[in-house]
Amino acid sequence: LKNKWHLVIDRLTVLFLKFLEYFHKLQVFVSVLNYVFLIAWAFALPYSQFRPLASSVCTVWTCVIVVCKMLYQLETIEPYKFSSNCTMPENRTEEEIKVLSGSLLYKAPVDPSEWVGLRKTPDSLLVYLRSNPYIIMFANHTCDIVDWALVMVWEAAGQSSRRTLNNLLMLGILAFEVTIYRHQEYFRCRNNLTAPETKTIFHDITRLHLDDGIVNCLKYFVNYFFYKFGLETCFLLSINVIGQRMDFYAMIHALSLVLVLYRRRRKAIAEIWPKYCCFLACIITFQYFICIGIPPASCKDYPWRNPNSNFNNNIIKWLYFPDFIHKPSPVFLAYDFMLLLCASLQRQTFEDENKAAVRIMAGDNVEICMNLEAASFSQHNPVPDFIHCRSYLDMCKVITFSYLFWFVLTIIFITGTTRISIFCMGYLVACFYFLLFGGDLLLKPIRSILRYWDWLIAYNVFVITMKNILSIGACGYVRSLMRNSCWAIQAFSLSCTVKGYDIPENTSTCKLPSGEAGIIWDSICFAFLMLQRRVFMSYYFLHVVADIKASQILASRGAELFQATIVKAVKARIEEENKSMDQLKRQMDRIKARQQKYKKGKERMMSMNQESSDGQAVQKAPEDDDDDDDGEADKEKTKGKKKQWWRPWVDHASMVRSGDYYLFETDSEEEEEKKEEEEPPKKSAFQ
C-alpha cells in the first residue's frame, strides 16, 4: 500500500507541476525567451514522443535564461544607451493624444531588451552568482533534488528578484519531474515489477467491480473517470473557453467544436482528434506570438491605431490584436492550455481503447448498436438488471437512468425561462415537445432517440456560437447599437460579459440586459444534454426501456380485462332487458286474451240480462195505473235485490274491473321461473 501511494503521489505531482510550469511562465512575463517553453510543451502534450525532448530543451533553455539575466545585470550594460525615444505623431486630436499618451511607445523610453525578456533589477550580481551551484546540481541531478529545491527556493525568495525566482522555480520543477520518473524506474527494477498498463490508483478494481457496490463503483471512477467521460470533459472545457473569452478566438473554438460534434460517433471523432489537438497547439502558439507583438523599439505603431481606421479599443480587444496601449491578456491562454491538456489526455485514451489489456481492466468504450430493440435484447444485455433495486447502487442507477431524462427537461425549461430573448424560445419549444412525446420517444430505437437529441444539442451549440458572434456588437459596437438599434439589444440580450471593455451606462431610452446575458445556463444545459446522451448510449438504459415496455403491456392487459368486464356486464344487462321484454310481451298477450274473454263474457251477460228482463215483463201483468210513485220505487228496489241475490258476481266483477285490477289477477311469471330454478335437481341412484 505504501509503494502504491508513492506512485500515486508521484503521478499527481507530475500533472500539477506541468500545469504550474506552463501557467507560471505564461502569466508572469510574456517575452521572446519564454516563447521556447510554450512551443515545446504545446506540441509535447498531444505528442508524447516529444515529451522527453521538451523536458531536456526546457532544462537547458532555463539555464541559458538565468545566465543571460545575470549577465544583463552587469554594470557595464546600460539600457538607456540603446533605448529608443519615440515621438508622438502630429495632426492628432486631443482625444487621440490622450489615448496615445498611455501607449508603451510614448510614455517612456523603450528598452528593446524587455521585449526579449531581460530587465534590470536593483539587486546585486552576488544574488545571481549564489544560485549557480544549485543550477549545476539541478542540471546534473547528482544530489537529493527535493532538498536542494527547498533550499534554492528559500534562498531565492529571500534574496533574488521575482523573475529570477520564476526561472529557478521552473528549473526546480523540471528537475523534480526527472527525479520522479527515475524513482519510479528504480523502484520497479529493484522489485522486479513492470510498468502497469493503466496508470491507476486502485489496481485491483476492474470493470467487473463496477456493479458490486457504491464503494467499488467510486473506486472504479477514481481510476477510469477520464477514460469513460474524457470526451465530454473536453467538450465542457471548450465551452468554458468560449464563455471566458467571448472574442474572435472563442468563435474559432466554437466553430471547431461544431466540426467535432458533427461527426457524432465516437469512432469518427477519434479519427479527427489528432488534428484537433494539433489545431489547439497551433492556435495557442499563434496567440502567444500575438501577445509578444512586434518590437516596440522600432517606434512603429500597429495599423489599426491609424486615425483613418475604424477600430476602437473594444474592437481591438475583441479581435485579440497586438497593441501597445492595451496588450492582449495572456491569462486567456491558460483556459486554452487546460483544453489542450485534456485533449491530449483524450488522445491517449483513444489509443488505449485499442489495447486489449486496457479493455480488460477498464472495459470498452464501444458505442451500442443504433438499431437495438430493448425488448429483444434485454435477455442478452451484458450489464446486470438494476430495476428491482437490490442495493443502494441500484437505487442510484434507477435515479440516473430512469429519471435523469425528465430532470434534463427541467434544466432545459429553466434555461429557456431565466432569460428573455429569441434564443430562449427554442429551448421552450424543445422542452414542450419532449414533454409531450418523450414517453413514446424513449421506446423507439436508439437511432431515432439520438436523432432528436442530437438536434437539441446542435441547437444548444448554435445558440452558444451565435451569442459569441453577436458579442462583437455587445462589446465593440455597443454605443451605436444603443443609439440606433436598441431593439436588437433587447431581442438578443446583447451585453458584454467580459471585464476590460469600455461599456457605457444605461440611458433612459435603452438599458443593457446585463443580468440576462452570458452563456452560463447554456453551458449547464450543454453539460446535462451530453450526460443524457451518454445515458442513451449505455446498455443500462436498455433495462429501463424494457421495464417501460413491460409496464405498458401490463397496463394494456389490465385495460383489456377491465374492458372485458364492462362488455360482460353490458351483455348481461342486455340479456336481462330482452328477457324482461319477452316476459312483458307474454304478459301483454295474456292480458289481451283475458280482455277478449271478458268482453265476450260481458256481451253474453248483457244478452242474458236483456232476455230475463223481457221474460219478466211478459209474465207479470201491469199494475193499476192508479198506484202512486212510491209503490213503483219499492218494486224497482225489490227487483234490484233479486238481481243481487241470484247473480252476485256480476256487480262485484264489474266493480273490480272498473278499477283495472283484472290486469294483475295472476302471479308474476318471474316468481314462477324462480320457483322452478329453486327446485333442487333430482338425485341420481348413486347419490
From TrEMBL:
Highest rank taxon of the organism: Eukaryota
Name of the protein this chain belongs to: Piezo-type mechanosensitive ion channel component 2
